[in-house]
Design goal:
6 helices, mainly alpha, globular
């Protein structure tokens, strides 16, 4: 068997991690610095998220740091679990009542992000920083 399928797989995993990680970095950054935490807490309160202040801070940092971990390829399973808690919360508290399709505010995008995050978090590929560091021991 040639190396090409392995290289293609590794590049695909890297592109996936970079893309999904960037999405979460932007969402976390927006909560923390753009929209602001007061607005995030207000929105969490309005949609009925329990402990909205704590949940808002958790979501912001999980998205920002989890996205960064995906991009770098470090602590991938932990990052995937933490970010998936946030996306599942968004699915339950914000999107589920709107049905499936994203056009109506539904949960399809959040569901896709959750699946992609878990797949990449538990199979991040050889071009993950944790793999590179592990190979140099």
């Amino acid at each position: 068997m040639t190396r090409m399928p392995s290289i293609v797989r590794e590049v695909a995993l890297l592109v996936g991690r970079l893309t999904i990680g960037a999405i979460f970095i932007v969402h976390g950054w927006t909560k923390l610095f753009s929209t602001g935490m007061d607005a995030t807490v207000s929105m969490f309160t309005a949609v009925g998220v329990p402990l909205p202040e704590l949940a808002a801070w958790f979501a912001a940092f999980a998205e920002l740091l989890g996205g960064l971990a995906l991009v770098l390829g470090v602590a991938l399973p932990l990052a995937a679990i933490l970010v998936s808690v946030v996306t599942l919360g968004a699915l339950i508290f914000v999107h589920a009542k709107n049905g499936f399709f994203v056009q109506t505010g539904g949960f399809e995008f959040v569901l896709a992000l959750t699946a992609a995050t878990l797949a990449l978090g538990f199979n991040g590929g050889s071009y993950a920083l944790s793999q590179v560091i592990g190979r140099n021991k």
